[in-house]
Amino acid sequence: MSIPTNIPTDVDVLIVGGGPAGALLGCLLARRGIHVLVVEKQQNLDRDFRGETLAAPSVVTLRRLGFGPALENHGYLETTAVSMRMEGQEVLNVDYGRFGIGALPIDIPQPGLIGLFNDAAAGEPGYAYAAGTSCTGLVEKDGAITGARLRDRDGNRVTVTARLVVGADGRFSKVRKEAGLAAEITPQQRDFLSFKLPRPAGWGQHAELVVNRDKHLVVLPTWPDFLRVGHNLPKRGLGELRRRGIEAFRAGITEIDPRLGPLVEEHVRTWDDTGFLEIFTAEMADWARDGLILIGDASHTCTPILGQGVNLAIQDVVMISPVIAAALRAGTGPVPATTFDGFVAARRRHKRRVTRFQRMQEAALAQHKPAKVWVRRVRFKTMNRLPLKYVVFGKVINAPHPIDPADLRTGAEAAPTPAAPSAA
């Protein structure tokens, strides 16, 4: 087997995982003149993703980083509000325009988002990207991580030396496992099945949570003209659901939200039209070793509630980019784990707050006894009448994270741009 010719064998930073976190970090580091290699095991980013909503603070952050024109050129769908209906009654409505951030959440396909990060980085000297390439193991010397072993889609192997390896390879992180960093996995009570439907004309641009006792649907308007629907099912309940048949599944969706009945009947024909997601959280005592740091879902896995994964990843990158740059300037060997103590402490606090909120929401949605269902409905109706709902949601959404001046793009490139025409 030959050595892949497109992969440099000695870099400053090796990023394993080319999702939103890895792609954005690779771009920001390359802008600073750092030699960086991003490896992504998928050859083409053409698979379906579940989390494609960028919260308003993330939109502001990306515009300040200079990605506003690229977002406009690609196109996206703004989400104006989120509402909740329980047992046929609207119990909560949150208007995103009330947060005063200067942007609304947007839906943009993750392949498009990752693509614009990669395109921006491609022109930077010292940047390299290797698609269809997997990390098969880490290289260690004197207790520090000094690189990784890689394999491309043709089976060719190469060892890459790096002063820092960044694990940005998601909830089932290979880097995390190879580094021996243990994760505390907490399964949630339920898992998730999702599917897409054409979005009817006049549907609107607000996200909806439709609840009937312990069953619920998340209905999200999706760019350019779809609805993304997520449906909960009992933990390890996929087999039983399939045994009952696709017709029973469609009937169950219609029972929760009759508006979707005709669409589901026409467009969800087989199980291949659905996607399964196992729901768990993963928390870690240590995110770093000498020469290695984990970010995004690799460092702290959240549940899909409120679609926080991609937004937490962007916050991780914006905060860690200047930390990495300073560490590389300060020394010559593997970046010490202690370099990231402040980053880990700050991000852990925020992620734990998000996880606590998600677990509270999951516990509320899992109620099925009539008395508890009634109390739940009253509680949400009461919160809906109070300004408190904006305080609660604001703590989870969070403000745009401060950006290091070296990452900013000034002038017209970074100026807030008008919203793209919506695909209503």
UniProtKB/TrEMBL annotation:
Determine if Zinc-finger is one of this entry's keywords. no
* Superkingdom of the source species: Bacteria
Tell me which residues make up the FAD-binding domain.
10-357
Q: Does the keyword Oxidoreductase apply?
A: yes
Q: Which keywords does the record carry? A: Oxidoreductase
InterPro entries membership? FAD-bd (IPR002938), FAD/NAD-bd_sf (IPR036188), PheA/TfdB_FAD_monoxygenase (IPR050631)
What SUPFAM superfamilies would the database entry show?
FAD/NAD(P)-binding domain (SSF51905)
Q: PANTHER family, per this entry?
A: 3-(3-HYDROXY-PHENYL)PROPIONATE/3-HYDROXYCINNAMIC ACID HYDROXYLASE, FAD-DEPENDENT MONOOXYGENASE
Q: Could you identify this protein by its name? A: 2-polyprenyl-6-methoxyphenol hydroxylase
